[in-house]
Amino acid sequence: MKTDSRLVLALDETNGEKALKVAESVSDMVDAIKINWPLVLSEGPQMITKLSEFSEVICDFKVADIPNTVKLIVENAVSRGASAVIVHAFTGDDSLRAAVEAAGDAEIFAVTEMSHPGAKMFTAQHAEEMARLGVECGAKGFIAPATRPDRIAAIRSVVGDLKILSPGVGAQGGKASDAIKAGATYAIVGRAIYGAEDPRAAAKIFLDDIKSI
Amino acid sequence: MKTDSRLVLALDETNGEKALKVAESVSDMVDAIKINWPLVLSEGPQMITKLSEFSEVICDFKVADIPNTVKLIVENAVSRGASAVIVHAFTGDDSLRAAVEAAGDAEIFAVTEMSHPGAKMFTAQHAEEMARLGVECGAKGFIAPATRPDRIAAIRSVVGDLKILSPGVGAQGGKASDAIKAGATYAIVGRAIYGAEDPRAAAKIFLDDIKSI
C-alpha cells in the first residue's frame, strides 16, 4: 500500500451507491479505502472489486477464527481485489500465519487492541505481546487508536518500521497530525469524510492537517 | 432455536449450489445449519435467506468489533433470516450487549474459547470469565469444543440452562454423544456430513449416536 497522503477513508456507509460515490470523489486524496462487513452484508462482496477500481481497498474484517476459515476469508477478499485484510491477533500464531500465507502479495494488518470501553476487559493487557507476535508472524501493519497517541507510540516501539494505521480521527476526537507524530503511518477518518456534505472538502482539511507536521 | 435432533450442520461449503443441495437433503434431520463468512464471500449474503427456507440458520460470523459495527452486522444477518449469530465474548460487555440488543428475537451465541492451538496464547485463560459475562449480557448460548468434554462441563457449570453448541464432532474427532453427555445442547458436525457422498446417511449415524444416550 502506498504512503502518499497518509490518509485512509473508513467507508462505513452501508448504501452501495452512496459508498461508490464517496469513493470516486476522494479516490485521488486517500491512500486506501477501508470497508467492513456491514457494507458486504448490505451490498454483497462484489463491493470489494467495485471499490478497488477507485482505490486500494482494506477489508477491515477483524477476522477471528480457526486457521482454515481465516485462510478462506483472506483468499476470497484478496481475489476480489483487496490490498489488505485486517485480522485479530488474539486468535494466536497459527491463525495469524494462515492469514499472512493466504494474503500472498496483499498485506495483513493485525488488531492488537481496540478503542471501545469493553476492549479493556480481556485483551488490552496483551497488546504489546500480540504486536510482537504479529511481527513474528509476518503482519505488515498494526491498528492503534488515534485517540490515544501514547498507545500508538507504544506499538511503534514494538513493530519497528512496519505500518501503523490509526482509526478514531475526526468524529471520535483523534487528530490526524497527532496520530502521525506519535508514530502512525496512516490516519483513518470515517464519518467526518463520508458523512460530510462535501467529502472532498472534508478530506482536504485532514490532508492539510497532516501536511502541517 | 428448537432442540429436537440436537444436531447442527456446519455447512462449511463455499459452493452455493452444493451448499443448498446438502441443506435441502438434511433439513428435516438437523435443528439448524451453521454458516460462516467464506460462504457469504463466495456466494453473497442472500445465502442466509436461501438457507433459512430449509432450516434455522446460525451465522457463525465470530463478530469481534466495536458495538456499532456489531449492531450493524447482527441486524443485517437477522433481517436476512438468521435465527442466531455467533459473536466473540473477548470484545467485552458493550459489544456483547450491542449484539443481544440488535438480535431482537434472534439469539446471540458467544465464543468463550476456541479449539485451535493458537487460541491458548491469549484468551483461553479467560474462558469462564467470558462465559459469566455472556450470561450477564444476555447471550442465549455458548460455544465449547466437543473434542474436550471437560471444557463443555466447565462452561455448563457457569451458564446454567442456557444452550451450549459443540463443534468438532466427526472429522475433528469429537463424539456427539460424549459432547451431549458432558452438557452440550447441540453437537455441531461439518465435513463428516456435508462432505459425505450421502449426507442423509451420514447425518443418520450422528443422530443414532445421539439417540443412544
Overview in brief:
The structure is a homodimer of 213-residue chains. The mean pLDDT of chain A is 96.
Overall description:
Two copies of one chain form a homodimer. Chain A is of the alpha/beta class and 213 residues long. Chain A has a single domain (7-211), classed as Aldolase class I (TIM Barrel, Alpha-Beta Barrel), CATH 3.20.20.70. The first copy, chain A, is built from ten helices and eight strands. Chain A has an eight-stranded parallel β-barrel, surrounded by eight helices.
Architecture (CATH level 2) name of chain A: Alpha-Beta Barrel
| Unreliable stretches covering 5 or more consecutive residues of chain A | none
* Overall SS class of chain A: alpha/beta
* Chain-averaged pLDDT of chain A: 96
Number of helices in the DSSP assignment of chain A: 10
Task: Please tell me what the overall shape of chain A is.
Answer: globular
The total beta strand count of chain A reads: 8
Strands of the largest sheet of chain A, in order across it?
A: 1-2-3-4-5-6-7-8
> In oligomeric terms, what are we looking at?
homodimer
CATH superfamily of chain A: Aldolase class I
**Helical coverage of chain A, percent range:** 40-55%
Q: Main beta sheet of chain A, described?
A: 8 strands, parallel, barrel
Distance between the termini of chain A: 22 Å
Question: How many individual domains of chain A?
Answer: 1
In CATH terms, what is the fold-level topology of chain A?
TIM Barrel
Largest protein-protein interface: A-B, 46 and 46 residues
Could you give the order of the helices and strands of chain A?
EHEHHEHEHEHEHEHEHH
Radius of gyration of chain A over alpha carbons? 16 Å
Proportion of residues in extended strands of chain A: 15-25%
Highest-level CATH class of chain A = Alpha Beta
